[in-house]
Each structure stands twice: as C-alpha cells, then as structure tokens.
Amino acid sequence: MRWLWVDRFTEFVSGSHAKGIKNVSLVEEAVDNYCPGYPFLPPTLIIEGMAQLGGILVAEHFLFDKRVVLAKVGRAKFYAPALNGTTLRYEVKMDAVQDNGGTVTSTSHCDGEIQAEIDLMFAFLEDGYLIDGPLFEPDDLKVMLRIMKFFSVAVDANGNRFPTYEKLN
Amino acid sequence: MALTEDEIFAKVQSALEDALGVDDDEVTMDATLVGDLGAESIDFLDIVFKLEKAFDIQIPREELSPEDILTNSQYVQDGVVTADGLAELKKRMPWADLSDFEADPKVQNFGNLLTVGDLCRYVGAKVND
C-alpha cells in the first residue's frame, strides 16, 4: 500500500499555499476498519494528508534540497467526521520558514463547511542525523509528485510553471 | 513602542503554554525550560517560531542554541567548557544567568540552563534595543 493521503494537488503556489483533495472511499481499509460499523477517515490520516501537502510546500520552497519531516502537530480541531463518499478539500498555507524548519496552517472543508483546522511544524534533518542521505530516492518523490498532479498545477509566485528541479532529476 | 517586562512575560508565557502544553501557573520566571517545563529539543524550534511571530523579531538559531561553541574543541576540553568558552558564551548570551553553569560547566549541564526569565530578557533585549 502506498502511504498517500492526498489524491491530487489542485493548486500550488511556491512559498505561499497548496490545495488538494482527498476522496474518502469505503474501499480504504482505514475508513472501513477504524470504527467498525461507522466508517470515516481517521483524523490522524487527515493530519497525514495535510502533512504531505505541507511538507511538499515547505520542501519545494527549498527546491527539495532539505530533508523535511513532520516534527509537531501544534493544533488540530475537528468539527465533523470525514464520512465515506465525501470529498475533503485541503488548503495548506505557509506560515513561517527558517533554515532549520517551517510551520504551516491548514484547513479541511467538506461540502463547503469547515471540517478541520490543523497547524503543523516541520523540521529539517541535518546531515548525519538519524539517517544519512536523502529520505526519498529522487525518482520515488518525482513519481509521487507526478501522480498527485503536482507538476500540472505548480507555479511560482509570479504564476510561472516550474520547469524542473535539479534535486528530483 | 517599548514593551514592559509584564507585557513581554505575558507573551512569552502564552508562547510556552502553546508550544509545551503547560499551564500558565507553571510558567514562572525561574522555571527551567527543559527540567521544569519538559521542553524537548524539537520544542525549541517551535518556541522560536512562536516568539518570532509574537514579537515580530528574527531569532538566529545560534543565539539561543550556541551549539557551535559547545562543540568547538577550542572552547571545550574533556566535556567541560573552558574559561575562554565561558567568556564566549557570556558574550553570545548576555541575557542568560550563567552563574550556576559556571560552577560546574560540563557541556551536558548546558541543556537545562535556560529559564523563562532568560527568554524574557533575551526577547526584551531584542524588542527594546
């Protein structure tokens, strides 16, 4: 199973924000098994989806040259369960970045209503810390971004499409 | 406009409550961030982000975490910070009370040094200078 908790990017503006959707399907084991008889997407996996969007937002800001990991969930409020058959619309906004980490704020909407609000902090692994080398094989990350339609929507702050990223080639 | 000590403390207290999940009555001027408030290494990054936002300041990482000094063989011998190292720390962190650390300047003792009061003085020096 691929650990992908965003179905696709719908908008991506470098250094600013990322939007994506997550369709909640009954065929997903986590949806069906988490609370037997009452299927919904577990809130932790909504946080994971936000972290994937946010992690890519932060990593892209550094041209995928940092080893970005989710370090802390600052705040997570859930207003409604994410039921099977619904579509969650995620939006992650860049809050702050430093040379050793970044923060984002994010929301999930379902049928136009706020479903969750989540603040996340990412840290950058320094060389030699925990593991050496990249967290992804370059091709793996590139394929993940491609199937999530990142390259179809990503633009820089001036609205220009990105050609290529050296770190992904 | 300059902030009063009470205003600075209130903002630092709020940042620490959010970052560490502690109650306001735990955040006293004498409380140490690690020993009393349970801060872990990753929390310091969070605290930096929250203080930068609360006070609209920039906090270079070496100002609160002088790891470059504590890992420099010029300033550390056999796990103990030398007199030159202490002088460098004092120069880098004039807002910190290093008197307890000076009595036993093992590098391992540095981790539990910073207090809420130190943070307030650090931020105060940034915003009121």
From TrEMBL, chain B:
The modification O-(pantetheine 4'-phosphoryl)serine is found at S41. It comes from the Bacteria. PROSITE patterns: CARRIER, PHOSPHOPANTETHEINE. 4'-phosphopantetheine is transferred from CoA to a specific serine of apo-ACP by AcpS. This modification is essential for activity because fatty acids are bound in thioester linkage to the sulfhydryl of the prosthetic group. Belongs to the acyl carrier protein (ACP) family. HAMAP family: Acyl_carrier (MF_01217). This is Acyl carrier protein. It comes from Stieleria neptunia. The lineage of its organism: Bacteria, Pseudomonadati, Planctomycetota, Planctomycetia, Pirellulales.
